[in-house]
Amino acid sequence: QGLRGIAIISVLLFHLLPDLFINGYLGVDVFFVLSGYLISSILSKHEKLSIDHFLDFYKRRFERIIPLYATLLLMCLISSLFLFSSFDVENTRISFVWSLILARNLQQIHDSRDYWKQSSNSKPLLLHLWSLGVEMQYYLIAPFLSFALIFVKSRTHRVLALIVLISISFISYFSSDSTTQFNSPQCRAWQFLLGSMVAE
Prior knowledge:
75% helix; 0% strand
């Protein structure tokens, strides 16, 4: 929890004082690794994963995230009606739809928008939700990955399997453009998988 707190604070400081905390954005990467570690730790408690375990995993994640997430989305949408021009309101509405299905990161890829090349004045209101999109999309496959690894009895072989998956993610990363590298769950998967490997 301490590391998660440090990661979150570093990202906040990066956005508030980017010239002073120039590497604060790395807190997102740390958070992804920690999430991979925690997911694997939670799922590895079960010697046999069943449909009930899968459903319980998703239920707990959604109960923890979705209520606050939905509240934030609604507040942002309502605020935009009073604070933005009609053009910006329309952009926010489109981003709201993507965010509603937890795919704000995929909108960035769809629109070919480089996170780093957007000026501070033009960054969409819901841009920060890209990271939650990546995380929730990884959550969709994490239980199935853990289920597959159960059949690998040797710890060494499980680690080797994770190394192979990390390598595949690296290949995807280096063969993609910068926008896809930043926002794509398959390009970011190596970070979650690194956390899973530590959990082993």
